[in-house]
Amino acid sequence: MFTVRRAIQAQMPIYAMHDCMAQLAPHPPVGLNQWEDVRYFLAVVRAASFSGAARALATDQSTVSRRVASLEADLGRALFERGARAVRRTSHGDALVEPALAVERAVLALEDTARRAEELPRGKVRLALTEGLAQHVVVPRILPSLFADYPGLTIFLRTSDDVADLERHEADVALRFFRPAKGELVGQRVARLDLAILVSKKRKAELAKVAPHELPWTSYVLERADTPESRALARLGATPRLECSSVETQLAAVRAGLGVAVAPRMLLQVLPDLAVLSPPGASALGHLELFVVTRATLRTVPRVAVVFEALVRELRSLSLSRAPK
Asked: Residue 127, CB half-sphere, CA atoms under 13 Å: how many?
């Protein structure tokens, strides 16, 4: 909650600040810090009763009385004369109405400024994603327009094949190849990525008629994880001769002609030196699903919302599940 001193300092000229504080606290020491006490004082002034103030503030009369008493104790002055049916302001109460209204205007202006600031997408957003998505999709196709539209935005790309723990605040937003578990996280599926056997164009003709189990396979190995790619290799009866802990390294090996890989077909859009290999006996290999995920508590924070929505919009518009053969 804003303090009286902070609100006045933020919004009022120095001379006005000293004037209002002098009237609110004419004799030190006072320790006047709570804007809430001033708010309750003004509610009683407007309602001309403690019960009316309680109704206006959606609270009980004892709370109003306690807050006003706290303000009176801070100031060392009685502000109201309590009668059986009504309350009347004392001369000190009369003198403090205008300074209290000035404090109220200052606090409300400060709150409005804070809300407007929250409505502006500015500040840092940490995005967790794979190196491949960062290099081939997010950096060249999404970030330029995002930075142009929101110059106050800062992006930190946390690139790793490991899954960032959003609930432990390791990132604000993540691109994931699996649906978020129920709980604090919310997400949207943005693409279905069909898997295919990818090969370097320079070796496609050579390997076109080789049986799947005899192809020079490369594989991506993610420790303690069963992936759609690994399941596809198992169905093909493939034995990799090159295993990689990085998808980017695996793709570099394929582009260098060292072997073939099960990978999303959409990569042909960004790696034109690759082609799809359709060996005899190879059936459908399945697909990956891509999700944009964040914590529910962050979903409407402006800086997070614009990043989340840009990712959803642009990833869907890229038609990632369709690519040339």
From this structure: 28
